[in-house]
Amino acid sequence: MKPTKKELGAEEFFQTKVKLENDLIRLEELDRESKERIENIIELSEQLIKISETNESPYFLQRSKRLNTEIHKFKIKNEYKQKEFDTLFHILEKIKSEDKIEFLDSALKNRITRIANRLTEKKPNTSPTSQKLSGKLVFICYVLEGVNFLIPKKSYRILRNIPAFKKQLRIKDKLVPLFPGPGFVLMEEGEKKEKNVLLMKDNSKKDHGFYFDELKEDWAISKISLDGLLEKDSTNGQIIGKIKRKGKLYHLVKI
User: Fold this and answer.
1) Rounded distance, CA 53 to CA 47, Å?
2) Are 37 and 223 in contact (CB under 8 A)?
């Protein structure tokens, strides 16, 4: 006896119901798995931050913090659309492709005494201030993007509102190199930032520019103390080494 139309309909109904139930179970498993993966990704991004802090690497620390922030947004939205993935992969690609510009963990091969000799070549001054600073090296202290820098004190002038992505700045008919150059100041896509620039001359009278946000109080330190505090690194064109003072890290810059 052939099954009736109603019997066939009932059979199809329950077969479809079983398929739906199986797909729902699979979806639940995928959702649980995706949540576990998100937590794991957050944990890995926090590990990147910790490694950057341990290695005193401001450049990678900024990148890692931004990545961590975007991942948290990713989790909160709970919308895993292509746009969100593109943002995360974009940050990861920048870390990978630009890691060679991480210069804060490297330094010059030149000895610190070269700078000391240049500074002490100036004629002695008998004013009370110079007597107080006699035998000491004086450095300008400035901050850029939360990172502290020291540079031997020389006469300088300040340029305002300079785009923060430049490697060089044309002044009249000369190209002036800018430290630290493009890539250090983080900017969102399409964002424009401007910074101040310290402009000073080296011993050969060549101009150099240094991006900064804020000038701090000058440092005066004896050469012996400086040699004791300075942690020299391997090789780089402008960073001589690092000094830790009162819980803060300062990067000594060459000019």
Assistant:
1) 10
2) no
- Of residues 115 and 129, which shows the higher confidence score? 115
Write the pLDDT tens digit of every residue in 13-22: 778 878 888 8
How far apart (Å, rounded) are the C-alpha atoms in residues 10 and 25?
A: 23
Gap between the Cα atoms of 234 and 241, Å rounded: 9
Mean pLDDT on 90-113: 51
Confirm whether pTM is higher than 0.90: no
Q: What is the DSSP string of 189-225?
A: TT---EEEEEEEE-TTS-EEEEEESEE-PPEEEEHHH
Domain encompassing residue 77: 5-101
Domain-embedded: residue 234: yes
The pLDDT-based confidence of 92 (bands split at 50, 70, 90) is confident
Q: Are residues 122 and 89 in the same domain?
A: no
Confidence at residue 209, expressed as pLDDT on a 0 to 100 scale: 94
Query: What's the CA gap between 80 and 164, in Å, rounded?
Result: 33
Task: Please state, in angstroms and rounded to a whole number, the distance separating the CA atoms of residues 79 and 172.
Answer: 52
Q: Which of 81, 101, 121 lies at the terminal end of a domain, its last residue?
A: 101
Same domain, 157 and 63: no
- CA angle 56/61/64 to nearest 5° reads 150
Alpha carbon distances (Å) from 101 to 112, 182, 215 = 23, 9, 24
> Which of 101, 121, 141 lies at the terminal end of a domain, its last residue?
101
